[in-house]
Amino acid sequence: MSSDVSPSLHARSVSKPVRLLGKIEARSIDYIPPSERRGRAWHQAPFWFTGQLVVSTVIVGFIGPAQGLSVGLSITACTLGALAGAFLMAFHANQGPTMGLPQMVQSRAQFGVKGAALPMLGAIFLYVGLSVFGVVLGGQAISMVLPGPPLMWGACVVVLASLLAVVGHDLLHAVLRWLSYLVAPVFVVLTVLALVHLDPQPASGDTNTPAAMLVQFVAAAGYLLGYAVYVSDYSRYLPASTSSRAVIGWTYLGAAASAIWLMSLGSFIASSVPVADALPNLQDVGDRLFPGFGTFALVITLVPSAIALMGVNLYGTMLSGVSIAAGFRPIALSVRARVIGIVAGGACAFLVALAMPEAYLGAFNDFVTMVLYLLVPWSAVNLVDYYWVRRGRYAITALFDQNGVYGRWGVAGLVAYGLGFAAMIPFMSTGFFTGPAVPALGGADIAFAVGLLVSGGAYLVANRGFHPSSEQPAILASLRLLGESADGIERRTVDTATGPLSVLTRRGDEGTEPVVFLHPANLSARCWRMVTGRLPADQGWIALDLRGHGESTRSGTYSVQSWAEDCAYVLSALGVRTAHLVGGSASAAVAVELAARRPDLVASVVTVGGGFRPVDPEEGGLIEEIVALGPEGALSRHAAAEAVAVPEAAQEAVADLSHNDAATTIAIWRAAAATDAERAGERLRCPALVVVGELDRTCPPEESAWFAQAVGARLEILRGIGHLPMYEAPEDLALLLTEHLRRFS
Questions:
Q1: Which sequence ranges are marked TM in the entry (predicted)?
Q2: Residue 549 to residue 467: CA distance in whole angstroms
Q3: Coil, helix or strand for 152?
Q4: Which of 123, 427, 588, 719 reaches 20 to 30 Å from 614, CA-CA?
Q5: Are 597 and 568 in contact (CB under 8 A)?
Q6: DSSP 313-360
Q7: Digit-coded pLDDT (tens) for 420-443
Q8: Is residue 319 a contact partner of residue 326, using CB atoms and an 8 Å limit?
Q9: Alpha carbon distance 608, 611 (integer Å)
Q10: How far is Cα 95 from Cα 87, in angstroms, rounded to an integer?
Q11: Which among 481, 617, 489, 499 has a CA at the least distance from the CA of 553?
Q12: What does the pLDDT look like over 329-388, one tens digit per residue?
């Protein structure tokens, strides 16, 4: 590995995550390890919904009427443009959980470690431009109620936004999620007032309707696509197992819904007033409720949103700026570097705002259009690479290594970007430049479509001989460096009616039956890692995080029956016809229950330290300890008592705990204590192997001996082993399992 690799990429991978909003985020462009992943896919919806609840979104809707469009056609163009822009934006969001990196850093795979500076400069242009409009609009709004020039108050907006960005990811997410409760009701009132009191006028008769609609479409699409350059900055902390469909869907819903709403409101207002000027127009609409409400509405919608959105933009400025600097010279990815990047972005935005013309609608339209021109080729290359060329498989550490597999300059990406941008020039139409093809098309601007097709197509052609397997050695080296599995193990998500279930899988040889591992209560699928690593290389397997555990959903009820249903659903979703089930502790009963319910799915059952009959959940005092010591403290003590043969095994078990709160931990323990496999055992027809530790105190050997005799199964007692054979004796357990599979596969 080259010295160009930032040590912070992996050096902090075992550190505690920065969860408290009062603490400054430690990470910048470096990889987010699994231990620091958190959040839910649906959090993307309120974040991006609030992200559009700003006056600048309303201003986008003013563009159609300014071109002479009727209110209906303007709203139609806004809607289609917003849907198109949000579509591309949402598919970028999926890259965050998969790669655990900021959006523009991911571009190094297509453009090279140094070459990625080109699209990153375009991103900085966007961030600073949007921040400039925040300075202007926020300052104007504050000056409506407080004395002093607007730019003085704009400077205050910059300072507050910079503080938000310095604290970082979690605070920005929290602010935008809760800001909707403040801002959305005001926009609802303004919308109702506009519909009741305003009367849109007919469009002018000499309007070139197709060309005007394209102008409005491009503005709406460009406005939404502008967020694509940092959309995965705010999804990169999500667990890698997060459903792709959920991330894309929630991002799309949140971004498109509020954009369509406010852009349509802007078109409606602009079509109804003699002079379209966003702030005075909105103030006048608000005053229809009562004098002064318009001023209140502007201040309450503009100022908090301007601060929050500028915080988002300055955060993005910092990420791209640090990425560019680190691409040319190794730097420490420290809090100091973050603060410098944020402050520099804020100062730049304020200086540009000083030169902003008072009539900024035309400038805003040209800015949004130029953003589209700059970002369309990048978006096409980035999405084609992720979904068609490399198919989501990247060597993360190589993105920080100039001598790595992606190199300094990504020729294919840079050439595709250049070709796409060059192809767009004849079709561009702005206030300061009109391409030669525009008059021939009646003034229509189709540059964005040309850029998407040419850049995406050129990149595909340039990579027509590429196969993802060629980078597999680099990917495996990266996974080892990051401390993750590198043996063909994949984490997947299966969506169910109660929520997503997370599974670890490894493919086996064609035609072989996989082994399904079910973990003990309050552990996770990773508890089997020392066993699965000792299975034959051709043996495929699936390790499921049961409902309430690991990275699976916490929704629904917890019981042997519900866990068995989840397991059956996962097998069906993964296309598994039959499998061998291995259940540990309480999950032994889950395996037996599934085999009794669905004998067509189960080739054999192996129980490990199984619990087969109900016990009193209060017995042993575990619930009292959970309440007194907290789940991790109580379960750590419990694990130490169970790992009687190999004390170090308790530490391994603690590392695989599901980290639930006390109520969930107790609910799972009660469900485990209620296991009763006697009836299911009577219906068991498949071969079975019963394994138990000689010193098992939680589920004594007598319990397993009774069950083995009841179902006619082979009994294996591991001498000198306690309740956790998967940690205490993984070699012995893997040998028993391998022998069993050879007999019954």
A1: 45-63, 69-91, 111-139, 151-172, 179-198, 210-230, 250-273, 293-316, 337-355, 367-388, 409-428, 440-462
A2: 36
A3: helix
A4: 719
A5: yes
A6: HHHHHHHHHHHHHHHHS-----HHHHHHHHHHHHHHHHHHHHT--S--
A7: 999 999 999 887 888 999 888 777
A8: no
A9: 9
A10: 14
A11: 499
A12: 776 667 777 888 899 989 988 988 887 655 554 566 677 678 778 888 999 999 999 999
Question: Per the structure block, which two tokens stand in for 201?
Answer: 């006028």
pLDDT for residue 138: 84
Note the residue count of the chain. Answer: 745
List of long-range contacts for 149-155, beta carbons under 8 Å, 24+ apart: 151/350, 151/353, 151/354, 154/350, 154/353, 155/350
3-state secondary structure of 382: helix
The answer to whether the CB of 271 falls within 8 A of the CB of 57 is no
DSSP string, 499-558: EEEEEEEE--STTPPPEEEEPPTT--GGGGHHHHTTS-TT--EEEE--TTSTTS---S--
C-alpha to C-alpha distance for 519 and 386, rounded to whole angstroms: 33
CB-CB contact of 211 with 427 (8 Å): no
Please say whether the beta carbons of 106 and 235 come within 8 A: no
Exposed, middle or buried, 22 (CB in 10 Å: 0-12/13-18/19+)? exposed
**Sequence-separated (6 or more) residues with CB below 8 Å from residue 646:** 727, 728, 729
Residue 312: closest CA among 130, 473, 184:
130
CA dist 343 and 165 (Å) reads 9
How many angstroms separate the first and last alpha carbons of the chain? 43
Token pair for 73: 């056609």
SS3 at position 262: helix
